[in-house]
Amino acid sequence: MFKVNEDYLKLPGSYLFSTIGKKVAAFAEANPDKRIIRLGIGDVTQPLAPAIIDALHSAVDEMAHAETFHGYAPDLGYEFLRKAMAENDYQDRGCDIRADEIFVSDGAKGDSGNIQEIFARDNKIAVCDPVYPVYVDTNVMAGRTGTYDQTAETWSDVIYMPCTKETGFVPELPKETPDIIYLCFPNNPTGSAITKDRLQEWVDYANKVGAVIIYDAAYEAYISEENVPHSIYECQGARTCAIELRSFSKNAGFTGVRLGATVIPKEIKQGEVTLHSLWARRHGTKYNGAPYIVQKAGEAVYSEAGKAQLKAQVAYYMKNARVIYEGLKEAGYHVSGGVNAPYIWLETPKGMTSWEFFDHLLERAHVVGTPGSGFGPSGEGYFRLTAFGSYENTVAAIERIKAL
User: Comparing 7-11, 16-20, 44-48, 122-126, which segment has the lowest mean pLDDT?
Assistant: First the structure.
C-alpha cells in the first residue's frame, strides 16, 4: 500500500494565489457585466522585446536543420548564456562570479523551492515576515518547519524576522541563530530594499555563525537608488556564505517563457563538501534546465538592443508604480514601496483585515490585489498592489479606489 508524504498534509489551506484565483473567478461568474482590473499576481503584461523575439525566431530556425539542431542542454546551461550573465550581472559590477558557478534553470521559483533539498532536514530556517510564501511552503514539504499554530499562523521551527513599518520593512538580525537565511531584496511583497552597508552586516553575520544566505534577486532590475546593491556578491565575504537566485521573468518578461538561474560560489563548504558540487549533482539528476531556444532568448537580454528595450519596459512598470503610490497617498492611504520594486505596500483601513480589504476592493472597485496576511503573520493589516498591469488599467484602478 502506497503512503503519501505527510509533510505535505501540514500545509494549511491552499496556496495564496490559488485562493485569490478562486475568489476572482466566482465574482466574475456572478458579475459578468463588471470589468475586473487585476493588480494582484506579479505577472508581466508587456510583450517580449523585439530583440528577444528575433533571438527566438533565429533559434527556432536553427532547430530545423541537422547541422544546427540542439537536443538536451548541458547540465549547467549553455556557456554562451552563463558567460553573458557572469560578465553583465556580476563582473561588470565588480563581483567575482564565474560562468561555471551559474546554473541555468527553467525559473527562479522552482530553484527557490528546490534549493532546500541539498540541506539536512534539521537545518533551521529564518525568513523575512512577510515574504514570498514559497520559501516556507517548500520547507514545510521537506519536514523542516515543525508544527503549525493556526492562531498565530506561524511554524514552531521557523525563525520569523518581522519586517514592519518601524524597521522600514527591512529585517533585523535574528536573536536565535539560524542555519539557512532567506532574504529577498528588493522585497516581494513590501517593495522595500536594503542598502549595501546593511546587507554587508548580514553577510558578516552569516559567516560568523556558519549560516547560508539564500538571496532572491528577482527584482534587481527595478533598483533606482545608488546605495542599493543589485547582487549580494557586491558585499565582501559573500562568496563563502551566499547563494543567489536570478530570474528573467520580471526584468525581461519571461513569465511565460521560463528562464532563471542559481549562483553558487565554490567556496561555500561544509568540511570538504561544496554546495556547488551538491547542487551540480541535484541539477543534473532532476533536470530542470531550459531549452536551447529559451537560453538563446536569454542571451539576447544582454545585447545592446535588448538592454535598451528592457530598460524601457522596466521604466514603464515603474511609471505605473508611481501612479499607484501617488494615487493611494492622495486618497489618504499609508503606502510604501514602489521605488526599487514594482510593488506598493499599503496599510488597510483601520479595523479591516487584509482579506476583508481584498473583498472590499473586488466587490466595490472590481480591483484585485493581494492580502498581506498571505505572505506571513506580519503582513496582516497590509495589502500589495502590483505595477505589472497596463498603464491605462493602472490609472483606472486607482481612480476607482480613490472613488470609494
Answer: 16-20
